[in-house]
Amino acid sequence: MNPKDSLLLCEIIINDIEYNWYSLYLDMLLLSIFGGKERTKKEFGKLLKESGFKIIRIIKTKSFISIIEAIKITNV
């Protein structure tokens, strides 16, 4: 990636305080089929940080999917 490039992720970001039925359904589906899970904003931040990225912003859409914009962390 070039230093000015952004990484865009289209993801469902679950609320860490309360679940809705759709989030619970998808969480169970991901767990049972792929061994994965839905994540909170904090969990995405940690995952991206461990991969060398940081979240710049989260864009909510009219659907249940949000767009996470992240950039590569550079050592200055």
Primary descriptors:
76 residues, alpha+beta, 3 strands, 32% helix, 28% strand
Global Rg: 14 Å
Order of helices and strands: EHHEE
Bin the strand percentage: 25-35%
Would you report the number of β strands?
A: 3
Indicate the structural class: alpha+beta
Shape: elongated
Q: What fraction, in percent, of the residue positions are helical?
A: 25-40%
Domain count? 1
Characterize the largest beta sheet: strand count, sense, and whether it forms a barrel. Answer: 3 strands, antiparallel
Unreliable stretches (pLDDT < 50, length at least 5) are none
- For the record, give the distance between the C-alpha atoms at the N and C termini, rounded to a whole number: 16 Å
Q: How is the quaternary structure best described?
A: single chain
Report the average pLDDT across residues. Answer: 87
The number of helical runs is 2
Strand order of the largest sheet: 1-3-2
Give me the secondary-structure topology.
Layout lengths: L5 E6 L9 H14 L6 H10 L2 E8 L5 E7 L4
Antiparallel strand pairs: 1-3, 2-3
Question: What's the gist of this structure?
Answer:
By secondary structure, this protein is α+β, with helices and mostly antiparallel strands. The chain is 32% helix and 28% strand. A hairpin with a 5-residue loop joins strand 2 and strand 3.
